Amino acid sequence: MQTEYREWDFDEWEKAWSISVGEVYTCSECRNMLIVSKGGTGSLDLKCCGKPMTLYRGCGDAA
After folding, report:
1. Rounded CA gap, 60 and 39, in Å?
2. How far apart are CA 22 and CA 35, in angstroms?
3. N or C: which end of the chain has fewer CB within 10 A?
4. Number of other residues whose CB lies within 10 A of the CB of residue 32
5. 13-20 CB contacts, 8 Å cutoff, 24+ apart
């Protein structure tokens, strides 16, 4: 079975590659937190305790 993929539009690319001020990332091992203070475009490869850091969703989210 072949999966069909659609092309992203500009808004989807911009959202996927945007690094926004105020985003918070956390380490699942030591609970260290990092906050983005200067935004831009690109990708982040944040690591702590040898593991990738994850985007913090806040205490109200179940993620």
Report:
1. 24
2. 6
3. N
4. 12
5. 14/41, 17/41, 17/42, 17/43, 19/44
> Mapped to the 3 state alphabet, what secondary structure does 1-63 carry?
CCCCCCCCCHHHHHHHHEECCCCEEECCCCCCEEECCCCEECCCCCEECCEECEECCCCCCCC
- Candidates 39, 35, 34, 48; CA nearest to 14 is 39
At 44, the amino acid letter reads L
Torsion angle defined by CA atoms of residues 16, 19, 20 and 21, in that order, rounded to the nearest 10 degrees? 170
Distance between CA atoms of residues 32 and 18, nearest Å? 23
